[in-house]
Design brief:
The chain is mostly beta strands. The chain is built from one helix and eleven strands, in the order E-E-E-E-E-E-E-E-E-H-E-E. A hairpin with a 6-residue loop joins strand 4 and strand 5.
Length: about 120
């Protein structure tokens, strides 16, 4: 079993930056697809970015060019650098891992991820 704990959320000004981190514990995450999702009240959780063991990343169109996902599997950490933040980026951000699918198959679909963190709130004003 893998436990995921996010950190780094908080308030930010439009145009500013935040860096989210997710630390995994339990089973090694080598080979897992890692991702970030976000959710606002009343809306479905949506995929933001995913990254594989070789740091090959996939991004949702709405963060392309602004967010950067990375991982250090040896240290069980993945990060999301968020730049040029917009008020519409306000959401609860969740890190996730998929032990069942590689990133090409998992894509950014919530159903393919079987480990989730509790979330960290990002508020952009």
């Amino acid at each position: 079993h893998v436990q995921m704990v996010e950190s780094g959320g908080g308030p930010a000004q439009a145009g500013g930056s935040l860096r989210l981190s997710c630390t995994a514990s339990g089973n090694p995450i080598s080979g897992y697809c890692m991702a970030w999702f976000r959710q606002t009240p009343g809306k479905e959780r949506e995929g933001v970015a995913s990254v594989d063991d070789n740091n090959r990343a996939t991004y949702a169109e709405f963060v392309q060019g602004r967010f950067t996902i990375s991982r250090d599997s040896a240290r069980y950490i993945q990060s999301l650098q968020m730049n040029s933040l917009k008020p519409e980026d306000t959401a609860m951000y969740y890190c996730a891992a998929s032990s069942r699918y590689d990133c090409a198959s998992a894509s950014l679909m919530t159903i393919t991820y079987n480990y989730w963190g509790q979330g960290t709130q990002v508020t952009v004003s």
